[in-house]
Each structure stands twice: as C-alpha cells, then as structure tokens.
Amino acid sequence: MAPVGIPLFTLLLLAGLRVSGATVSDSFKDCSQFLYMRTAPTGIRGGNLKKICQRYGDKPRYATLYDSSRRLALYSAYTFKKSDGQRRMDTPWMYEPQLASEEESGNMQTLPPSDKTGPLIEDSQAMLEDYVDAVEYERGPLNPDQHQADNQDKAATYTLTNVVPQITDFVEGSWTAYTDRIRRRLNNFCRGVSYVVTGVTISGLTIRRGGQDRMAIPKHLWSAYCCPRYDRNSPYEVRYMFPSYAAYGLNEIVGHSVVEVSLKTLESFLKNQTGMDKNASVDESFRDCSQFLYHQRPPRGMRLEGLHTICQRYDDEPRYATLYDPARHIPLYSAYTFKGSTGEKIDSHPWMYEPQLLSTSETGNMQPFRQTGADQHLEQTQAVLADYTDALSYERGQLTPDQHQSSPADKAATYTLTNAVPITGEFLRNHWEPHLDTIRQRLNNYCRGTAYIVTGITTAGRAIRRGNINRVTIPKHIWSAYCCPDFDPGVPYDVRYKFPSYAVYGLNDVLDNYVNEVSPKRLEALVKREMPVDQDFQLFHSNCIPAV
Q1: Which residue blocks in 214-323 are alpha helix, DSSP H?
Q2: Peptide bond before residue 299 is cis, with ω within 30 degrees of 0
C-alpha cells in the first residue's frame, strides 16, 4: 500500500488547484521522468501557458510551466540530486528558443547582447534588461542550482524561464535558508528519488520597462517534495515531514518568513489564491464558531491569501474566532462576544499554542506549551514564548481579553499566543487596559443583549527578531469595535451616540501612544489606509443597524 502522503502530492499539488485526470502532455513527454508518476500538473489556468521541457546539452533537465503573457515561470518540476549545496558561478544566463519560434533548437541558448536580441525573443520571455532597474529584486530560481549535483544539471538552472523576481532580502534570507534546509533533509533521509515542484502565486504587480509591463511579480513562492522511499528511522522531529511536505513564503520586503506546512494546508492556501466567495455568510473555517460573529458573518473585505481562520477551542468548546497570519506569526483580529464581567483577570494561567496550525489531524483544542520548549515545526507555524523573552519593551497583549469574559474556561481560552500581539508596556497599562475597562462598564450597564466585538491590528513593517530573523510582527495600531443591536433606550445622552456600535484605535508606541474613540466608519477608513484590505471592508454586517 502506498504511503498516505503520496496520493495527496499527486492529486493536490501535481493536479494544481482542481483535481482532474491528467496525462503527460506532448510538451512534457520527453521530461516526464521529473514528474511523480509521470503525471503533469493540470488545472492551472492561464491565457498563454507554455509547457517547456528544459533542455541543456541535448538532454532534458526538468519541466517548467511558463506564462508567456506575464513572462513568468508558474512552476518548475524537477528531481532532487544529492548535493553539497555549492552553486555554479560561471554560467551565463540563457533563454528559451522554443518560446520565440517552434522551429528553433530545443536547447536553451546563451542570451545574445541586448542590441542583438530580436523582438520575437523579447516579446516571448523575460530578458536581463528587465531586472536592471528593478533594484529591489533578484533572479530567484524555482529549480535551484543547489538542488542539483552534476555540473550540466546545475548550468541548466540558469535560464530566465526558470527564475522569478524575488525580493532580495527574501531570496537571500529565508528562502535560501529553506532551500538549504530541504537539501540537507533530502540528502539525509530520502532513500530514493525525490520529486520537487516549486511555483508562485501572482500579486498583480509588475516590473515595467520602457513604459510597458514586462514581468509579473510573484506574491508568494511555494514548494513541495515527494519522497516515496525514505528512512523510516529518521528522527521524530523530521519523521512527520515524510514522504511529503510543503512550504510557502511571502515575497515582500517585510514579513517574508517561510512557513513549512502539510500538503493539505498548502492545498488550502493555493485554493485561496483563486479567490473566495465574498458573499458567503460564514467562512468555512468559522462554521463552528459563527455565533461570535454578528449575523454569523466575519468582517468583509479581508484578503485571506495565506491566512488561517481559527475557531479557538478550549476544553472541547469553541470560545471565539481568530484570523491568523502564520507568515508573520500574529493574529490580524479576534472576534468574540462580550460576557458581563467584573473585570478580574486570571492569575498565572499558562500560555498555550494552536495545534491546528501544525496539522489538520491534531486536536482542535489549544494546548499548553511543553516545558521543554517549542519544536522547530511549531515555531514555523506560530509565535512561541521564546519570541518574547528578549523583547523587553513588549508584552503579550490579548485581542480577546480575559477581562471581557466571565466563566473560568472562557477566560482561560484567551491565553493562547494565537490571540496575542506584542504591545508596548506603556501603551497596554496606560491606555489600552483602561479603555477595555471603560468598554466593560459601558456594555455591562447599557447592552441588554449580545455584544459582538472584533479587535485587530494594523502593521507597519517592524518585527520582534530572534536568531537574526523576523519572528513576530509588531502592530502599529490596535483597534476594536463593538456591535450591540439590543441596548437600553434610556442610555444617558453622553454615551447614547455610542450605540448600537462604536470603535477605537490606539498607537502602539513606547513614547507616542494614545487611544482615540471613533465611529466604525472612521475606523474602517483607517484600516483601509493601513492594511491590504478591499475598499468594501466592513466591520459588521449592515453596519450593525438592527433590522426593523
């Protein structure tokens, strides 16, 4: 019987975003050996996609799906060769003659001087000149030199149809570190052929030259490997990563850490890139905790690519909902219902983590951190206690606060790092906690029904660093809004205008910190200005206006 991970690799990744029957296409017939079960990816749509069997020295080296209209490789599929990780430094960049004309040679060729590059070549694929003024980007290979052993296999990776524009800090930092980590893992524990597919998602941004869009810029890079025959005595910390595992990373200046995930998680991530039904009443991942969302609907207009919707469970019961960014190791918001409370906090409750971010097969309940510390896999998916150890200016600030819950279990459930963000001690103690108490008293006194609250953040690029890498993004602002459709009509005049809904935001800074109560519309304008959300971003369905 085949290992359970192998069908996933075949159907979910090598079948693209939709599962369908596939055979080796004519273009891949001479390089089907680089595809698991000789099956090419299907289901990836585009207007001008070309299947390239990448040839060098009259020999096929790997397979690439190329988008000629965007002048971008969508993926390259190759077999990993055990390697010492050294790069070949003396290979000139090449182009693909087959894209310019079907009558040309099947071998990649060295790029001619720019003044001798014909229009057929320049129109069909990226050129070196496209990168000259794009100073933030480097040519990042999908099939990397470091994953090949033979000099000619290494040389074959130096074609512009195998590279994509990657942010320099990303390619030289977290992505290269990930590539080397996979090299060592497969060197040590893969006993047979390892099939690798590395690809991109599209951002909509482009590199321009001569007043024209020349090349699409990836939003994310992703990769997955499949090693059907592996060392079954491999150490525990890597055993679950066989026979297959995956990763993705954000191709931006800030927040570009690489997250290793299961194939199922990567599949869900790639599906999100195709767009979601923005009119859905409840996000699929929030179906078990929709009671914490006004009209059972999450905030509208959030861009969900690469994010996880978590139904936060404690003691087998859902407690609140969180939208989590695993690349930045931070929640973007938590949504909860206010419980009439005295404002007392739990003393010394242990902090917990979210097993669902590790694997969909894990328990749905948050779990206390082990006393031995977090393992590498856990650290890749979420923040851990060690991230805050040397961040002396910051405390773990809850988005769903203990003070707004009443039962011991509901209070305990707020102590998970997937509900916490780095907040400066001065801002937390002098401004945010007093505001939380103001809202607690207001809702205790004047909200007669359920009060729905969403608390979230904006970001500005700063991060807590550990081990010389960005670990946890630091919020620029903390914001919150409540919706209480059933309130006391006799509420005093000075607070009457703050019902049924009102909002607040504060600047999370050591020196210049404050909170400012505003209308929900003003808060929505702030979030649209500071964060990548849609222009129809809305905190509460119908602006929390009760139906007549």
Answers
A1: 236-239, 263-272
A2: no
Cα separation of 400 and 456, whole Å? 9
Which of 163, 178, 172 is CA-nearest to residue 246?
A: 178
User: Which residues are CB-neighbours of 276 under 8 A, at least 6 positions away?
Assistant: 304
pTM: 0.55
Distances (CA, A) of 513 to 156, 296, 393, 410: 54, 34, 13, 29
Phi-psi sector, 468: left (phi>0), alpha (psi -120 to 50), beta: left
Please report which helix (H) or strand (E) contains residue 321, including its range. strand 317-325
Weakest-pLDDT range from 13-22, 181-190, 338-347? 13-22
Q: Is the dihedral of CA 433, 436, 438, 441 positive or negative?
A: negative
Taking the C-alpha atoms of residue 153 and residue 144, their distance in angstroms, rounded to an integer, is: 10
Which residue, among 533, 445, 433, has the nearest Cα to 480 in the 3D structure? 433
**The two three-digit tokens of residue 283, written as one number:** 């996000």
Using CB atoms within 10 Å of the CB of residue 529, give its burial: 0 to 12 exposed, 13 to 18 middle, 19+ buried.
Answer: exposed
Chain centroid, CA 293 distance in Å: 23
Q: How far is CA 534 from the centre of its chain?
A: 18
Beta bridge partners of 25: none
pLDDT per residue over 110-125, tens digit each?
988 876 667 778 888 8
Decide if 375 contacts 384 (C-beta within 8 A). no
Q: Enter the tokens of residue 507.
A: 């600047």
Burial 217-235 (b: 16+ CB within 10 A, else e): bbbbbbbbbbbbebeeebe
Give pLDDT tens digits for 226-270.
999 999 998 888 888 999 999 999 998 877 789 898 887 887 788
